[in-house]
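Justification of resources, computational component.

The compute hours requested in this renewal are based largely on the per-chain cost of generating structure records like the one below. Each record pairs the submitted sequence with a full structure-token output. That output is archived, and it is also reused by downstream analysis tasks.
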Amino acid sequence: MSEPLHIPVLRDEVLAHLAPRPGGRYVDATINGGGHTRALLEASAPDGRVLGIDRDPAVLAILRADLADAIETGRLTVAHASFAALRAVLDEHHVGPVDGILFDLGLSSFHLDASERGFSFQRNEPLDMRFDPTEVDRDTAADILDSHSAEELTALLRTYGEERFASRIARTVVARRRSEPLRTTADLLDAVTQSLPPNVRWRAARDAARVFQALRIATNAELEAVAAALPHASAALAPGGRLVVLAFHSLEDRLVKTFLRAEQQVGRLRVLTKKPIQPGDAEIAANPRAASAKLRAAERV
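The structure output for this chain reads:
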């Protein structure tokens, strides 16, 4: 995977707050396209090590080829797992206290542009949306649309997507599935468009983006994974170790902010970012998907 498939957001700011050094031990809990991992390997050369974790086996297959040299030298270890299982992954790979942990939350450009799992309505694809399609017990986005009540879908779209027309869209989905389930991105986009008042249908893409985001978050239990992983990350840091989190959704960022403040209050972490760091105009112009990013960082006391 080349970096254009997933441009690392706030790369310099991530490095500044993780402060990697030669010989350090680091965890990239969401390795994605490998951009942040490459930067960590370079900054911790010649003997720093990185454990890269990702939930998507397709991403890892590409990375294992792309970063084969670092894997062969032992400087990079790659693990297929959800970061919700961070403690177990660290134990499995015999990784002790570490000097830095990075979470780059949300989805990667690979998922939008190449996964063919329905993360974007720009192409007609099956409504899967699982980061890990080998998780056969996890409902797909299509399963959720087919099984949830109108009330449950309304709550989901309002909570995770902050969608103004959540109730109308939920009712349309339930009505349509009586004759035929929604199975593709085109099916869902059409349902969203037809749910909107006629005078705002011209901007249906905005509402669809919120609906797709909400379904993705629900499908992958993303907020629950973050809540499970953060305490493990804090406990895994060596004294002086750094935790850096990039969030792209207000609910994620609020969860991270609350956690870091609570850890500071009990004396485990020292918050390094009084306010979240956000990309500048130049970075957003070069990579519009970075626009909503917020970086928060803390140091183990």
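Residues 204-219 form the longest helix (16 residues). The domain at 3-110+222-300 is CATH 3.40.50.150 (Rossmann fold).
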